[in-house]
DNA sequence: GTGAAAGCGCTAACAA
DNA sequence: TTGTTAGCGCTTTCAC
C-alpha cells in the first residue's frame, strides 16, 4: 500500500493524506482521524526511499567500525553500545547503517557514504590517538560524534567518552592500597586512544605513590585471550614477577588466568587480577566475597547518549561542538575482600 | 555532484551517462571511457535513495538481532558474523541495516521493514526452537536466511548453521575419554535452538557411553559470567560434584573458573573445563600444552556464506530453499595434554 | 549510439 | 481546510 492507493481509497489527495499523517496543523481533525485509521488498517508505511529523496534526509545514521586486520576481531563492547544507539534511532524514525571498515579503505568509505547520501551522520568508533578521520569528516561536511576522544585535538569535535584515565588510576590505586607494587598492565593497542588513556591513568597512580614504572610490566596489543596468556606467561617466568595484573578486557583476563593456572600459582595467595573495560569491572583476589560488578548498562547508556547527541547535531548544527565525559563505574573500589599476601 | 550535473558537464544526456556507468552495451567505448573518467574525477556516486526509488530495490539487507531484555546482553558472536556478511554486501553494492529488536515488538519490526521498502531481505539471528518469525516472513514475502535452524520445521526455509550437536557430542566424548563421567553442562537458554542442539549433543555422548545423564548437572540460561559463577559454585558445593564442565561460551567459562578458584580446587588436578562456542574452542586441563584454538574465522565465514545465500535468493527466488551445515572446528580434540585425575 | 520523456513514491510550494 | 503541481535523482522504455 502506497500513498496514492491510500488517498484514492479515501477519496482525498495525496497531499492531504500526507499532511494528516505527518501532523501538519492545517488538516481538520475529522479527516486526520479518518486518514490515520485507514493508514493503520492498511498497514501503510511511507516508502523510506521515496521519503528520503523528497526530503533530502537519508533518515539513517552510519556506524563505521574499524576492523583490525591482524586478528580480525571486532570489539565486543561495540554490540552493547550499538544496542543503546539503536534504541534512540528507532524513537526518532532513523535507521542504522553498519559498515565494517578495513583501515586502509577508510577514507573511501566515508566519502562514499556522503556522496551516496546514504546517511545523515556517522558515529566514529575506536578513535586513535591521532585521528585523520575527523579532518576528513569536517571536509566532506558529514555530521559526526566520536565515541571516545583523540589526543591530537587541534580542531573542536563532538565526542562522548568514559573516563578511562581516571578508572585505571583508580584500579591501580586499589592494588597499591592492598600492598602491591609490582603491577603489570596488559593493555589494548596503545595507538588507540582509549588504551593510551588507560596507560596514563596507570602511570598516574604509580607515580603519585612513588612507585617505579617498570616498562617490562607493560604490554600493549590487540585484546585477545592469546595475548593475555602469552604475556602473563612470560611475565610469570621472571625472577622478579608481578604480584598483580590489570587487564584491559575480560578476554585478556581469561588468558592471564590460564597462565596463572599453568604456572601453579593461586589467586589471592600469590596474585590478584583486576579487569577493567567499559563493559564490566571485576576484581578477583581469589577470595571471600563476590567482587564482581557488571556495568554493561553504562556502555548502553553511552550509546544512547552518543546517538542523541548526533541527532541533535543534525537538527541544529549550531550546537557544535558538544561533549560528555562519563565516569566509569569502577565500583570494584568498594571491595572488602582480604588483601593478598605480598610478594 | 549528481547525474544531471555530470551529464551537463559532459554535454551528454543523463540517459547516456547512466548507461555508460552501469555497463550497458549500447554505449560507444569512447564515450564510456570519457564518462567514467569524468565520474571518477568528480567523485560521482549515484544517490542511493534515488536509485532505490527508480529500481525498486533498497540495496540493503536487514539484520535483526533479538535483544534479551533480562540481562540486556547482545551475543558477542554477532559482531564477528556481521563482519563477514558486511564484506559480501560491500562487494555487491549492498548496505547493512541493523535493528535491535526487543522480542515483544518483533513482528511489528519485520512488517515495518517490509512496508517501508527499507531492505531487500533479512538475516534472522538467534532462532528459537519454535520460531514464529519464519511464517511471518513468508507471509509478508520478505526473502530471508536464518543463521541457525529451528526445531519445528514444518515449512522449508533457508538456513546456515554450525553443527552444534556434533561439536558438543565431540567435546563430551573428549572428557569421557579422559576418564570423566560426572560432567556438567552450563548451557545457553535452551529455548534458543543452538543451545538445545548442544544439549542433545551432550546427551548423545553420555548415552552412547552408557553414562547417566544427571539433570542437576545441567543448567540453562543466558550466557553471562554471573550465571557461570553461581551455577558452578552451587555444583561444587555438592557432595557429589562434577569433575568437568562444558561451558557453552567463554564468558560463562570465566565465571566457572572464578568459582573453581574460590572453592580452592585446581584445574587439571580436580577439574577440567571445556569451552565451546562458535567463536572459539578451548580446553583447559590445567596443563602442559597450549590447548587453545581460536576459530573466530569460522564465524566470519558463516557470515559471508549466509550473506551470499541471501543475495542469491533475492536475485533468484527460484533457488529456494537452500541450506548449509558447517562442521564446527572442535580442534581441541587433538589435545595431547595429561588426563586429569578422576574424582 | 544517443536522447526525450515518463515514472518510482513521496514532500512542499503555491493556489484555491 | 483541501487540491494542483513541481520537483527530489535516478532508471528505463521508446523513439530517433
Features:
homodimer; 343 residues; alpha/beta; 434 Repressor (Amino-terminal Domain); Rossmann fold; 3 domains; six-stranded parallel beta sheet; six-stranded mixed beta sheet; 43% helix; 17% strand; disordered C terminus; DNA-binding
- Which residues of chain A sit in consecutive blocks of at least 5 with pLDDT less than 50? 287-292, 330-343
Strand residues, percent of chain A: 15-25%
The Cα radius of gyration of chain A reads 25 Å
Distance between the termini of chain A: 73 Å
Number of helices of chain A: 12
Largest sheet of chain A: 6 strands, parallel
Q: Structural class, judged by helices and strands of chain A?
A: alpha/beta
The total number of structural domains of chain A is 3
Most extensive protein-chain contact, per-chain counts = A-B, 66 and 67 residues
Q: Give helix % range of chain A.
A: 40-55%
Q: What is the CATH architecture annotation of the largest domain in chain A?
A: 3-Layer(aba) Sandwich
CATH class designation of the largest domain in chain A: Alpha Beta
* Count of β-strands of chain A: 12
Give the oligomer, counting copies of the same chain as homo and different chains as hetero. Answer: homodimer
CATH topology-level name of the largest domain in chain A: Rossmann fold
The largest sheet of chain A has its strands arranged as 2-1-3-4-5-12
- Average pLDDT confidence of chain A is 85
N to C succession of SSEs of chain A: HHHHEHEHEHEEHEHEHEHEEEHE
CATH superfamily of the largest domain in chain A: Response regulator
Overall 3D shape of chain A: elongated
Amino acid at each position: 500500500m502506497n500513498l496514492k492507493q491510500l488517498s484514492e481509497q479515501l477519496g482525498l489527495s495525496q497531499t492531504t493524506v500526507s499532511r494528516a499523517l505527518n501532523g501538519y496543523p492545517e488538516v481538520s481533525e475529522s479527516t486526520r482521524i479518518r486518514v490515520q485509521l485507514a493508514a493503520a488498517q492498511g498497514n501503510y508505511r511511507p516508502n523510506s526511499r521515496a521519503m528520503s529523496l523528497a526530503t533530502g534526509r537519508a533518515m539513517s545514521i552510519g556506524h563505521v567500525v574499524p576492523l583490525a586486520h591482524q586478528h580480525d576481531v571486532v570489539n565486543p563492547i561495540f554490540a552493547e553500545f550499538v544496542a543503546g544507539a539503536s534504541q534512540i534511532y528507532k524513537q526518532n524514525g532513523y535507521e542504522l547503517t553498519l559498515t565494517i571498515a578495513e583501515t586502509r579503505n577508510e577514507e573511501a568509505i566515508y566519502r562514499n557514504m556522503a556522496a551516496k547520501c546514504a546517511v545523515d551522520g556517522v558515529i566514529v568508533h575506536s578513535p586513535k590517538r591521532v585521528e585523520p578521520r575527523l579532518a576528513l569528516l569536517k571536509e566532506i561536511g558529514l555530521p559526526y560524534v566520536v565515541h571516545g576522544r583523540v589526543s591530537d585535538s587541534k580542531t573542536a569535535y563532538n565526542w562522548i567518552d568514559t573516563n578511562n584515565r581516571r578508572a585505571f588510576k583508580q584500579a591501580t590505586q586499589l592494588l597499591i592500597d592492598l600492598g602491591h607494587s609490582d603491577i603489570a598492565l596488559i593493555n589494548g593497542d596503545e595507538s588507540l586512544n582509549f588504551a593510551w588513556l588507560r596507560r596514563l591513568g596507570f602511570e598516574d597512580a604509580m607515580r603519585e605513590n612513588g612507585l617505579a614504572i617498570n616498562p617490562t610490566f607493560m604490554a600493549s596489543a590487540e585484546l585477545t585471550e592469546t595475548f593475555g596468556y602469552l604475556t602473563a606467561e612470560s611475565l610469570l617466568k621472571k625472577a622478579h614477577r608481578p604480584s598483580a595484573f590489570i587487564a584491559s578486557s575480560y578476554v585478556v583476563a581469561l588468558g592471564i588466568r590460564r597462565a596463572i593456572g599453568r604456572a601453579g600459582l593461586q589467586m589471592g595467595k600469590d596474585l590478584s587480577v583486576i579487569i577493567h573495560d567499559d563493559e564490566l569491572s571485576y576484581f578477583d583476589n581469589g577470595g571471600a566475597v563476590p567482587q564482581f560488578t557488571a556495568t554493561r548498562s553504562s556502555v548502553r547508556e553511552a550509546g544512547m547518549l552518543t546517538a542523541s547527541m548526533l541527532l541533535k547535531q543534525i537538527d541544529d548544527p549550531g550546537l557544535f561542538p558538544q561533549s560528555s565525559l562519563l565516569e566509569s563505574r569502577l565500583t570494584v573500589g568498594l571491595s572488602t575482600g582480604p588483601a593478598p599476601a605480598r610478594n
